[in-house]
Structure prediction request, 871 residues.
Amino acid sequence: MKASEIRSKWLKFFESKGHNIEPSAPLVPHNDPSLLWINAGMAPLKPYFDGRIVPENPRIANSQKCIRTNDIENVGKTRRHHTFFEMLGNFSIGDYFKEEVIEWAWEFLTSPEWIGFDPNRLSVTVYPEDTEAAEYWKRLGVPEERIYKLQENFWDIGEGPCGPCTEIFYDRGEKYGDLNDPECWPGGENERFLEVWNLVFSQFNHNKDGSYTPLPQKNIDTGAGLERFASILQDVDSNFDTDLFQPIIQKTCEITGVKYHENDEHDVALKVIADHIRTVTFAVGDGVLPSNEGRGYVIRRLLRRAVRYGKVLGMDKPFLYQLTPIVGEIMGVYYPEVVQKREFIERVIRTEEERFHETLSDGLNILAEMAEKARKQGSSQISGQDAFKLYDTYGFPFDLTEDFAAEKEMTVDREGFDQAMQEQRDRARAARQETDSMKVQGGPLADFTVKSEFVGYNELVTDAIVLAIIHENQMVDLVGTGETCQVILDRTPFYAESGGQVSDHGTITSGATILNVEDVHKAPHGQHVHTCVVAGGVLRKGDKVQATVASDVREDIIKNHTATHLLHKALKEVLGDHVNQAGSLVAPERLRFDFSHFGSITAEELQDIEERVNRQLWNSIAVDISLKPIAEAKAMGAMALFGEKYGDVVRVVRVGEYSLELCGGCHVQNTSQIGLFKIVSESGIGSGIRRIEAVTGRNAYQYLDGQLQLLRDAAALLKSNITDVPKRIEALHVQLKDMSRENESLRGKLSQIEAGSLTDQVKSVDGISLLAAQVSAADMESLRNIVDQMKNKLGSGIIVLGAVSEDKVNLVAAVTQDLVAKGYHAGKLIKETAARVGGSGGGRPDMAQAGGKDASKLQEALQAVEQLIRA
Prediction:
């Protein structure tokens, strides 16, 4: 059974059990800063589990792409460690529980219609105190001797939901282990009993004080590995021998000329490459680009690790990018993005490969310096910390460090390297444990299901009735002057912050009672919750009120929101279709638009983008908004934001024939209302993510007026007209260059004069000509010029000169080549001298420089040079 068929059967089975099928979320968590990657099927569903959002259907199933890199060193060396994998999951948000999920798991695994496992090959583990789960397994015919009780079968990662779990194991037969081995049992360290599915029963809350209390809503969270299912059903030795990996491995063999299963070292390399190229392909497809921080750093490390293993196979040039189409052929049926973005992904991978081949050369240079440093300290070993720094910071593989050390008749502190690696893992694990737990269920609005209607697309003022008041996290009947509260109305014109658009501000009034609305967000059941301050009077539940949005603020917001749509389209036109929105802010005073793009943007491109947006404003295009079934909207070509969840019916925002997007925000009726669009700044903010900030309407006018005033001020200082400012600045540049050349000439003459006066201060120390003196030099460059003059005059000798500039000391030392050959070293000499004036520095054996803070000690430091030479 092919992996794609297994995935399809999983989704069809749970759809037949009344589950909504959630599409796989992007690998980059959406609105969840606690996670670096989506690392489990449950991760994108956290808002459902912790009660922030109530799902349309409490039964959910998915096949979720995931990344985990905590065991990266085991990838390729074991049968089942991966950095990228697919987790099959089914979930219940307060609906079915243990009995149903166990019964369905058994049906899916044993029924010939679905997976068709032999029931006699299945065993399970349960938590010892979970007698319910054990009893349900017995009812299905699992004999007691194949139900194992394990104390560790309790899913708990700190404060938040937790509970017991039951794991299902498949017996792969005698070929994979002898039952006489004490570890050969479900849950033991063996290859025979393979865990295929874990069912977690979230029924308790782990409280801050360490106690456990029953959850008001019990949940089911399960996870099964697609790769493991495939290895069993395709009857192969490891996950790497399935149809998910073999085409990649065979293509790599074709490129490199090696054969699979002929050499253990080559096999490990082939597996690592196959695993890592899947991860990188999917991550880049989801907008993550190689960099030196965060997710980009993970991808850079994986790519470099794959390049290193390519060297094991004899590859000294980029080749990984050629594997991207194979990943698409295998996975494109369910993940079309890796096919649609293939060219872009290939370009990113190839560029990074080329850079790393250059980095390997740089790493060798750094390693040479580390080896030299160790030797000078009397050691023949490169420290574990240095080796780890090379590995972690520069991506330089440890085995290359060992090879280099061996060539130099040195060793590497493997124990120290392993310790540094473990410390990094411990830090990452601690960070995961701190952030992975979900919020505690509950809150006053968790069970509040009374409907509230949003009318703010067409109305800014409406009459309403107060449905609920929350004060200090409690439902109350009234609030008075000065108190902050949350209010839910039966109908509201106030937009709740979402999709990058900030919430409306305004007032809620009833007679003499006035509330200032400062924020609006959505409750778990979708109602708009108004955060208000009572400016006067008393508000009671059931009051009739008038809700009024501040119209001037809303008008500025809608101009910026429609402008983001136009900007998105213009970016795609100028930079390419790979550009996708990665975040936005639509506020009254400005808009911010983050987008994926590999590389910088030229001034010409930025001007082109800005002009394209303004052209749509000048053309006075009508903005049409309609509700469509999502399939119809996508068929029309409407742009959906990657990672956003959409319902069956969506709101389609069309700007003439130019822009077509799915959007729940507020917009102008005609582009001419925006007035003017002006880009204020453009910058890179992360791995392959760039940001444009812009202003529209009156804010754009004010920005341009401010820029014009700056130009007027500059013209006044230059004593010219505004139109002549560039010419005037150009003339000043020419003048400055002429003065700089003149100054350089004068400095040279002064250096010659200074050098001429120093000849008398040269003394002989043990047969060596030494000049150690204080001179007048405005800066370090002038000081170096004097040293060069003296080197030419002396022919052979040692020179140490110092100068005071703005209470700081500059020092330069020089040693002629004949004395360098005898062991004299300018870098060491300057280091000792600088220390005496409260400074530091260093350099080459023939030339070095330093700085110091204590000018009063300069003469003393220079007098000590003679003793340093003798020493």
